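ok trying again, last paste got cut off:
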Amino acid sequence: MNAPGVRRRRVARHPLAGAWAVGALCCALVLAGCSQDGGAAPGPAPSTGQDASGAPGPSTPEPSPARDAGPDLPDVDRTDPEQVAAAFVLGFVHRAPDDPTVREYLRLIEPFTTERLLTELRESTEEWCDRSCREERERGVRVSADAITPAISAEAPRTEDEVWVQVTYEMAWSWPGGGDSMPAGTSLKLVRADGTWRVDRRTTAG
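nice, full thing came through this time. structure:
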């Protein structure tokens, strides 16, 4: 079945031009106080509590709270590249204050991602929850991708086992008493092996 909240559309334009860059994912993925590529999340003002010296303490390993189930990942037909692309974005964007680690998103996207891309993302993601990350968690900021819309352009580069999928969505932040959102998007290259599709590359503009 199709993923809940996922809309499909067909477009007839080149996948790497124009609307392919609806919001840069690298700029929009502001997750748990810092994005995959850097940046600060919107939200309520942080608390002013700090030690007597006023200096931040050293980063420490994250605690291990009860495991959060993460977003409700849909039943995904992995023979359908659009469904796989949408599920990847849903997991990639997810951040919650009760995530076991800052790498929780890797667990969520693993079923839809090649080992090559997983390794690349794992090596580029810090293991520690730094000061800004801890502040975002204390403020209860959650991040999600809503209104996910995958599309394969009629002009998209495609072979029997490779295809580019454009995904647009609404990046949503929520916290106790408030929230915010903005449009975002990314282009994903999927490859097929053993009859199923996985994301192998992502590109963004900006």
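cool. The longest strand covers residues 178-193. The radius of gyration is 18 Å.
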